[in-house]
Amino acid sequence: MKFRIPLLLFFAVLLVSLSEVPGLEARGRPVAVVEMLEGSFTYSTPNTRIGLKRFDRIPSGSVLEAGKNAKILLRFRDGTWLRLFQNSSLLLKTEKTPEGSYQHFQREWVLLQGSLVAGLVGARQQLALKVPESFEIRISEGLLGVSNHAEGVSVSLSSGEARVRNALSSVTLKPGQWLNKVAARDPLNLKVLPVLNILEVEVIQGKAGTGKKDPVNPILKIQLKRRNSKRQLSLKLPVLLSSNMAFPQAKTLKLNSRGAASMELSDMAFLSDDKGYADRIQLMLSADAPGFEKIGAGFTEVSLIPQS
Fold it and tell me: Residue 70 has what DSSP assignment?
């Protein structure tokens, strides 16, 4: 019995010491939370394979796999979000938390197949997104869309700046630019294209309620612009509406033949009467389905101060 207590103390000290080893603490640590989920999604580690549900936490080192007609929206600790689509597979390879004077999350993901969109919070993280066959994207903030299919890799950028490289070349993408189905040995600087379709958004004041104290509900006006095209623009378009004050919400737009639609904003959480919110917030509207890489996101601002 007299040997048992020292032995337990030895293992306790050993456990504490190992937890302080750099890199060991992060292995398997939860790094993201499931905020929205449609269809079937699983995550796998070397020893487990688990079906996902809303509010599950996903550890570093996991492989996310999407079933048919599935979508998932993940939230990371710094506010970064990730949308992964059907028939996709993504490895959340590593994540290092800020330490000392280096106040950034350092992330490495590998898109094994399929499509994703990521909203990356500036000044808080640095992402290296890799695709098998010598393809890498480095970005610290912005809205990034990536697809990895047999035809090649597509990369679109709506905001921020992204450095893209393959086996032979590299290029810096600016907002409103994209790469369409490029291969590992393509000259990337010759493959950069302008985004031809853009979602233009504007906030206007709607009609007030019947009572004197009823608020005026803001309305978001949306216009899909297609350059050099006279085709009919009517379509149903899945979108994500987000802001710098709130997490994305999934919506479906019904664009008319002119490519126009509108949406009331009164049900959005970031427009609540909370004194802690800023006077003005930024809104972002982006396509929420694979195959829409050619549609650039729309940005606008809305004031929370009542108009006199």
Answer: -
